[in-house]
Structures are given as C-alpha cells and as structure tokens.
Amino acid sequence: MAGYRIDRVSEDIRREIAAIMRELKDPRIQGMLTVVNVEVSSDASFAKVYVSAMEGIETAKLAVKGLTSATGYIRREVGKRLRLRKTPELKFVADDSIEKGMGIARMIGDFTSESND
Predict the structure, then answer these.
(1) Taking Cα atoms as reference points, which of 44, 41, 49, 63 lies closest to residue 16?
(2) Cα 117 from Cα 115, distance rounded (Å)
(3) Which residues contact 93 (CB under 8 A, 6 or more apart)?
(4) What is the DSSP string of 7-70?
(5) Tell me: the pLDDT tens digits for 51-89?
(6) Could you give the CA distance from residue 24 to residue 17 in angstroms, rounded to a whole number?
(7) Neighbours of 67 (CB within 10 A)
(8) Nearest to 74 by CA among 59, 95, 58, 89
(9) Which domains, and CATH codes, for the chain?
(10) Alpha-carbon gap, residue 4 to 14, rounded angstroms
(11) Please, which residues have CB within 8 angstroms of residue 113's CB and are 6 or more apart in sequence?
C-alpha cells in the first residue's frame, strides 16, 4: 500500500518541478529540459530528480548546476504546492535518456527509409 503513495508523490513532484523549472530565470536552466524521473525514498525524506536535455548531456549537466543552486527555492515551492508534511531533500542528476532515444529514433528512421527505397 505504501508503494502506491510513494509512486503518486514522486509523479506529483516530477510534475511540479517541471513547472517550477519553466519559471526559473537562471541562464543555465534553458533549452528543452525534461524531468525524466523522480525516485523518492521509502520514508519520503530524499528524492533523486533525473533531468535530461534534447541538446545533450552537457546541457543537462549545466542545468543540474543551476537547479542545484536553486534547490532551496524549488524544495520550498514543491512543499507549498503539494502541501506535503515532509518535503523530501532534492538531488538533481543529469540523464542522457532523451539523447539516446533520439539516436534510436534516427536509426529507425534511417532503416525505414532504406527499406522503402
């Protein structure tokens, strides 16, 4: 039963952090950024936030630096918006899953265009 609550909280946190990221004015947090996943610990005291960028892993790493410097603000906003009793401590991690996905889509596109010829 507790697993369902953690899943729901992690999805809510993911959605709110994505909205907060659009409001931040830090120049490091730009481009097509996506919150890929949020892993919340079983006691909801820690949350690992995976951030990915369309431009690649370097852009994601730069965005993580900006997000890390704004962690206090982001954590306060998440707690206020979701009305959580205990807002988890946030740790941002750069992820390259969007870049990998685009590479796979490109390979599939190349393969299908070759087979149509």
Answers:
(1) 49
(2) 5
(3) 48, 49, 50, 51, 64
(4) HHHHHHHHHHHHHHHHH---TTS-SSEEEEEEEE-TTSSEEEEEEEETT-HHHHHHHHHHHHHT
(5) 998 888 888 899 999 999 999 999 999 999 999 888 999
(6) 10
(7) 27
(8) 89
(9) 2-116 (3.30.300.20)
(10) 15
(11) none
**Signed CA dihedral, 51, 57, 24, 90: sign only:** positive
Q: Residue 113: pLDDT above 80?
A: no
Judge contact between 67 and 51, C-beta under 8 A.
Answer: yes
Global pTM reads 0.82
